[in-house]
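Checklist before submission:
- one chain only
- standard amino acids only
- sequence pasted in full

Submission:
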Amino acid sequence: MNVLCIGDVVGSIGCAHLKKVLPQAKRDLAADICIVNGENSADGNGILPQSAAALFTAGADVVTGGNHTFRRREIYEELDRNAFLLRPANLPQGTPGRGMTVVDRGRYQVAVINLQGTVYMESLACPFDTIDALLAEAGNPRFCIVDFHAEATAEKKALAFYADGRISALFGTHTHVATADEQILPQGTGFITDVGMTGPVLSCLGVKPELSIEKMRSKLPVRFAVAEGECAMEGVLFTLDDKTGRTTAVRRVRL
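Returned file contents:
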């Protein structure tokens, strides 16, 4: 089985690029499941029902979130309604939406978990304890993919080692910068620290560079705007063993 995981989609320009390249990429890569992080897919930031719909239309089977998921209140009802639109599972009880779903393909079922880091980010429930609880709730599924939306690289890798052999793969999101450390851990869990982003190449994490420069130099609030121009879709393809659910190959993707 091949699982394609796509990095943070930035704004309507990122959504448009995803729609342009993802359908053919899924065919070329023989992707059975596609997971897309969409927490920044609305212009400005956050996610709206329209931008979520654009990601699903482009070919996402599951859309994951992160620390910007709740920036736009319009998405709250959609999070409750759509079982394949996730937000981090370690948010407080009663938060709209869910942090885990199962994609059922008949002959196999793939659990997808969305978690958020706590190092240099908001103080949420421990992601280590949360993944234990979710795996037990799901009956220790054979196929399980985790999107860990976190700032600290060490926290991402530590959670991957903690879950090694119990999940199929863990990919990091949030930093918008693809890392070159794709690997298979000793017990068969695939890993990459960050899959990057889908959006404008000549940008600061998707934002117009001059606005990022202004904020860093002035130390004053600046209204960010998404950059324009050529875009790239970044992600990773995990190949999973059909019998064990463990990763047999990891490949970075950039289109």
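Reviewer check: The domain at 2-254 is CATH 3.60.21.10 (Purple Acid Phosphatase; chain A, domain 2).
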